[in-house]
Amino acid sequence: MIVRKANESDRKAIAKVNARAFKNDWRILKENEDDIIMAIEEGININVYIIAEIDGRVVGFLSAVTGNDRAQYIVKKKFQKAAGFFKGYMIAMMLTKEFEEPLHLSDNHVYFDIIGIDPAYHHQGIATQLIRYEIEHSDYKMYSLKATNINENAIKCYTKNGFKEYKRVSVKYPKQMGFSEYVYMVYEK
Question: Torsion over CA of 16, 179, 134 and 139, rounded to 10 degrees?
């Protein structure tokens, strides 16, 4: 496995892994993987991604953001093309806050905005390699992330890599969201 900084030629592959890794989340937009890829590809902030490759294929990614940067921006016209004018617009508006709200991070703080692993490559240590690469190759002192309370495998992975839970926040519409809480975790060097 090779872990490296992403470049422009990785954009579509990152979108493909995202569509697969978060298939249940993206079904609100569309079931078709190609439509999901088309909707999210252009909004990827490629400069904040590292990727994992196996045999030349992107199988995972991690986006590490600082300051007010974010990993994914919503391109409304792409969501409208994927899901129809009205539905695409409504989904884009709903997701804009989640994806684009500034984080206001301190100078020594990194936020892991999105970590995605192709389901065909789960349980092979890819997330661990991405996390370790990012921590080892940066001078920051604090790393944080959030996961949903139902994503037990991710929480176990983060805990195994030294992250500690520091708070939980209930969501407004747990039935519609498919989970009841966000779990916030932090790692300090």
Answer: 140
